[in-house]
Design a protein that fits this description.
CATH class: Mainly Beta
Number of domains: 1
Oligomer: single chain
Protein name: TonB-dependent receptor
CATH architecture: Beta Barrel
Radius of gyration: 24 Å
CATH superfamily: TonB-dependent receptor, beta-barrel domain
Helix content: under 10%
Keywords: Cell outer membrane, Membrane, Receptor, Signal, TonB box, Transmembrane, Transmembrane beta strand, Transport
GO molecular function, one term: siderophore uptake transmembrane transporter activity
Shape: globular
Distance between the termini: 51 Å
Main location: membrane
InterPro entries: Beta-barrel_TonB, Beta-barrel_TonB_sf, Plug_dom, Plug_dom_sf, TonB-dep_rcpt-like
Length: 687
């Protein structure tokens, strides 16, 4: 059975993303090889660029990783999976994948777009998440648990935040720019199209960007075609940016994402579990208003962000002998506002602010034979204060505290609470190119509406099912994350750059929430979300990136472990003893090489994604799962970006899984067949 489980695979911790030459310097997302010398002459030290950015964003130590899309022919989940600190689990299909950081997933990892938390959570085991297309975001940042004081509920596993493109990222000159890109791939006979326009008149700039893609049933390396793994994805981004004055700016943004198709793909599991096929239609909108006031004095740098999100997820079973997928039609509306200010006095940088969020949710399907998610509501409130002190030019200490409060209602059922979360970190720039850091930070997760109030009957195979029972007495989960790391960042010459990152973490989670056994109703087991005492996750990562005019190297390796600290009984009435290992992939890595060919404005790229044999859940707990074998997947690509008269053109052709190796993605409970050899191509023009 596919269950709503909270601990899933991870690839942890590094500050270097899986990128090539155009990602050498984080201060210039559009860097080309011939720009390296210019960047080198103006570059700031590691402490200037990273510590100050961390201070302004509310982080006590640098983020795990930050990247821009390597190419836009691949989907966002593909790009994320190559980033340090992030793992994508749940198979190769867009709608059924989740983001994991540090072994924690789903509700425990914030997924933000332009700093706005996407609060849409999973319901009844549906593992869904809409992510912006690589065409629509210019960077994505991954942070460790509790590392940023401005984040509220959901931050016990970390945060992934997408920064969408602005008009100035597209404009050529000051007036007008148009662009179009088309691509496709063979393994899903898929196609994607992007077109848009950016313009500026006076102090106002505009952007409209539209993306469409289609993927059909996926082909695996053993020659089979997986049914119910097709989808059509449409996204659109519109922005208006206004420079009100030298000290004031206003930005209005509207993002729409819709994914329609069939899911889930088949799973391979000796325990006999299968996934019932269903049609889905998932639509999400986000409207954001950003106001900035910076009068160029040390006392005021005010930022106000207001947003409104709508999420609608509808799923209907496909008529097959195994038609026991839960029908749902969930509407999720979220409104939020956040205001913060930065004050710099006497070597202190004070960041402080308040925020409030209101969430309403409902499910149009209700009855005795389906899972019910009745009308419910949640309010979240927060206030935060952070002090960052530059003790010397080399040493910075940052400490912060956040007050969190929440209240949830569903008819006569109520749940509320409040708590403080704290953080402290030290950053030591002990040599010109070396940065060491250590931090203790806390994150919390208010009980989600689905965890509190989901009830009803879920049939997971013919004649077999569970009764889900609400639990309005859930306590918030709290993460206590300890992390330590070191980073080397140096320019040997104006054209040679190297970074080395080593990072380790230990995360203890209190009041951990998962499905547990709640009794029997006749022959049917009753299950509900409950708090267990604690769980512990820990791991390390090593990463290296080297860039030069003749070779580009990027590699990272991570290991993650986990264990429950308290015994508990699963919803299937299996006893899990204290100290039992958590089902987390033990090790995963990436190796990328690029070879620039400057005379023809091209780069040849090759990469290797690999995983070692995975840690398995004990057979006595979740059934006889097959061996989760490791794998190594090779890819090759040719990238052409001409200069001179053809500047603005771009072309990319490549192949994933070059050797057509058959392998399976493992999420700790199930195994999903992965995509076989996939040939892809893309061509674009920007004017």
């Amino acid at each position: 059975m596919k269950r709503n489980r909270k601990i899933l695979p991870t690839i942890l911790i590094s500050l270097t993303s899986a990128v090539f030459a155009d990602d050498v310097a984080s201060q210039n997302n559009n860097l080309e090889l011939d720009d390296i010398q210019v960047v080198a002459t103006r570059k700031l030290s590691t402490s200037d660029t990273e510590l100050n950015n961390a201070i302004e964003s509310g982080e006590v130590i640098p983020a795990i990783s930050k990247s821009k899309p390597i190419d836009t022919v691949h989907g966002t989940t593909y790009e994320l999976n190559d980033m340090a600190g992030i793992s994508i689990v749940g198979g190769g299909q867009t709608v059924s994948q989740s983001i994991s950081i540090g072994g924690l997933d789903r509700d425990n990892v914030i997924v933000g777009i332009d700093g706005v938390n996407n609060y849409f959570s999973n319901f009844g085991g549906n593992n869904t998440r809409l992510l912006p297309s690589p065409y629509l975001f210019k960077s994505v940042t991954a942070s460790q648990s509790g590392n940023d004081i401005t984040y509220g509920s959901g931050y016990i596993g970390g945060a992934v935040d997408f920064t969408t493109i602005d008009p100035e990222d597209i404009l050529h000159g000051d007036k007008l720019s148009t662009f179009a890109t088309v691509g496709g791939n063979s393994a899903t006979t898929g196609a994607n199209l992007n077109t848009g326009i950016a313009a500026k008149t006076g102090q106002v700039s505009y952007l409209l960007d539209i993306v469409g893609s289609n993927d059909n049933d996926m082909t695996t390396a053993n020659g089979s075609t997986l049914p119910y793994s097709a989808n059509q994805n449409f996204q659109g981004l519109a922005k208006i940016a206004i420079d009100i004055s030298k000290s004031q700016s206003l930005k209005l943004s509207f993002l729409n994402m819709q994914n329609v198709g069939q899911y889930p793909m088949a799973i391979v599991n000796n325990a006999g579990a299968t996934n019932p096929p269903a049609n889905f239609n998932y639509n999400q909108t986000q409207t954001t208003l950003d106001y900035r006031y910076n009068p160029d004095n040390p006392y005021f740098d005010v930022a106000v962000k207001a947003s409104y999100q709508t999420s609608n997820y509808a799923v209907n079973p496909i008529d097959t002998p195994d038609s026991w997928q839960t029908p749902q039609n969930i509407q999720y509306n979220t409104g939020s506002i956040k205001a913060q200010n930065t004050t710099k006095v006497a070597w202190q940088k004070l960041l402080y602010g308040i925020e409030a969020t209101n969430i309403t949710a409902s499910d149009a399907y209700n009855g005795t034979t389906v899972l019910n998610f009745p009308n419910s509501n949640q309010q979240l409130y927060g206030a935060f204060l952070q002090d960052s002190w530059d003790i010397t030019k080399q040493i910075n200490i940052t400490a912060g505290t956040r007050y969190n409060a929440y209240t949830s209602t569903n008819g006569t059922l109520n749940n509320s609470g409040s708590l403080f979360t704290n953080q402290i970190g030290i950053n030591y720039h002990f040599l010109p190119d070396w940065l060491a850091y250590a931090a203790y930070s806390e994150g919390f997760q208010a009980p989600t509406l689905s965890n509190l109030y989901l009830d009803g009957y879920h049939q997971y195979s013919n004649g077999n099912g569970y009764i889900y029972q609400p639990n309005p007495n859930l306590q918030p989960e709290v993460a206590h994350n300890k992390s330590i790391g070191i980073k080397y960042d140096s320019w040997f010459t104006p054209e040679q750059h190297m970074t080395i990152d080593v990072n380790g973490f230990l995360n203890d989670v209190s009041n951990y929430v998962l499905w547990t056994y709640a009794g029997q109703s006749g022959s049917t087991s009753v299950t509900q979300m409950s708090n267990i005492g604690s769980a512990q996750l820990y791991g390390y990562s090593v990463a290296l990136q080297y860039t030069s005019p003749w070779v580009l190297l990027n590699t990272n390796f991570t290991s993650t472990y986990g264990a429950t600290q308290d015994a508990y009984i699963t919803g299937s009435n299996y006893i899990v003893p204290a100290g039992a290992p958590l089902p987390i992939p033990q090790a995963k890595g990436y190796l990328g090489l690029g070879f620039p060919i400057e005379p023809v404005d091209s780069t040849i790229k090759t990469y290797l994604n690999y995983a070692l044999t995975q840690t398995r859940t004990p057979v006595s707990v979740y059934g006889n799962l097959p061996e989760a074998q490791g794998y190594a997947i090779l890819g090759l690509a040719y990238d052409w970006k001409p200069k001179g008269k053809l500047k603005g053109m771009s072309a990319l052709i490549g192949v994933d899984n070059l050797l057509d190796s058959y392998y399976q993605n493992y999420n700790g409970y199930n195994m999903y067949p992965a995509m076989g050899r996939n040939i892809y191509a893309q061509i674009g023009y920007k004017y």
